[in-house]
């Protein structure tokens, strides 16, 4: 549907017109590339009023990723995972360091769809077919380049091909629970992973799962 030009102008007045930023990169220095790539950028950014701002920022490039909510309408259930996340432990607000989250992984050289199918069987043991793309979001745009692709897919017991658990140095626990149980975990803080909360909210709003 073509949007009304008057509506577009009103949106521009409220939010500002969308236009490419004018950036002049002065310095691009690699600080670390032991795991992913951490760079220090110094650049000039021209604001909409013409003012030139000098910024110095660190940017962590870890590639793009994909995440998936496995759900079963008949059982009103979801499959999530639990694993140790060092960054949450370093933060200090998650003493045990373990995080309950939806299946996810980095794309590497795969398409988002192929990536998440591979991650699903590696992490959860479920071999899924069709996946529904929901949306794609930057998760931490202040300093991380990653664009995350969100998917949902129905699962059944017949699709379980192995125990999951991840590969190589991963130690992933597979959790199947009812949707009301997962929702309660969000409310009481046991689930505090952003992508997982968004996927659970989508399942509720889209009518895929129910709270009763």
Automatic annotation (TrEMBL):
InterPro entries associated with the record: NDP_pyrophosphatase, NUDIX_hydrolase-like_dom_sf, NUDIX_hydrolase_dom
Entry keyword set: Hydrolase, Magnesium, Metal-binding
Residues that coordinate or bind GDP-alpha-D-mannose: 35, 56-58, 85, 104-106, 123, 146, 169-170, 195
List of residues binding Mg(2+) 1: 119, 123, 170
Signal peptide: none
SUPFAM superfamilies, A to Z: Nudix (SSF55811)
Keyword tRNA-binding attached: no
GO biological process: nucleoside phosphate metabolic process; ribose phosphate metabolic process
Domain Nudix hydrolase: 61-199
GO cellular component, one term: cytosol
Sequence motif: Nudix box, positions: 105-126
Molecular function via GO: hydrolase activity, acting on acid anhydrides, in phosphorus-containing anhydrides; metal ion binding
PANTHER family in the record: NUDIX HYDROLASE DOMAIN-CONTAINING PROTEIN, UDP/ADP-SUGAR PYROPHOSPHATASE
Oligomer status and interactors: Homodimer.
Protein family per UniProt: Belongs to the Nudix hydrolase family. NudK subfamily.
Protein name listed in UniProt: GDP-mannose pyrophosphatase
Biological source species: Erwinia tasmaniensis (strain DSM 17950 / CFBP 7177 / CIP 109463 / NCPPB 4357 / Et1/99)
Gene behind the chain: yffH
